[in-house]
């Protein structure tokens, strides 16, 4: 059996931007120096980006760097889709019916996706990080935002 490829996205807190795998991206300070943006690869280690070398001192015209510093937050894809077919990532905010409840409209709940090291599965928590449900047992989940851009949804 082959290795399972995991998918990630990142949030750049300084630029206030979500970055997906293969997006054009480069740290702001390098753009200001005249470097070109190339498609990035995002892994659990950080954002892998290509830097074109503007100097003749290098053997290659480019080099790959990894950026994983304060201000970049990496989120993993849960391998689950919401009811509209949108991918659900860690730190997404979803609207859902808790397991076992499909009928009461008032039971629709909001929560944030988080990985539980303890149970080894994706769970849904409230703003105080209290457990609400297991993601794979939640009914009709729908991504309505993410923790970085829409944290106020959980207040």
List the helices and strands and how they pair.
Layout lengths: L7 E5 L4 E4 L3 E2 L2 H5 L5 E2 L1 E3 L2 E7 L9 E6 L4 E10 L5 E3 L2 E6 L11 E8 L4 E5 L5 E4 L4 E8 H4 L5
Antiparallel strand pairs: 1-2, 1-8, 3-4, 5-6, 6-7, 8-9, 10-11, 10-14, 11-12, 12-13
Structure description:
By secondary structure, this protein is mainly β. Helix content is 6%, strand content 47%. The protein is built from 2 helices and 14 strands. The protein has a 5-stranded antiparallel beta sheet. The chain has a 4-stranded antiparallel beta sheet with strand order 2-1-8-9, with no helix packed on it. Strand 1 and strand 2 form a beta hairpin.
In a few lines, what is going on in this structure?
The chain is mainly beta. Helix content is 6%, strand content 47%. The longest helix is centred in the N-terminal third of the chain and has 5 residues, at 28-32.
In round numbers, the mean pLDDT is 87
Evaluate the radius of gyration: 19 Å
Strand order of the largest sheet: 13-12-11-10-14
Give the N-terminus to C-terminus distance in angstroms: 44 Å
Report the portion of residues in β strands: over 45%
* Major pleated sheet: 5 strands, antiparallel
Structural category: mainly beta
Low-confidence stretches: none
Order of helices and strands: EEEHEEEEEEEEEEEH
Please tally the helical runs, counting DSSP H or I stretches of 4 or more residues.
2
Shape: elongated
- How many E-type strands? 14
Percent of residues in helices comes to under 10%
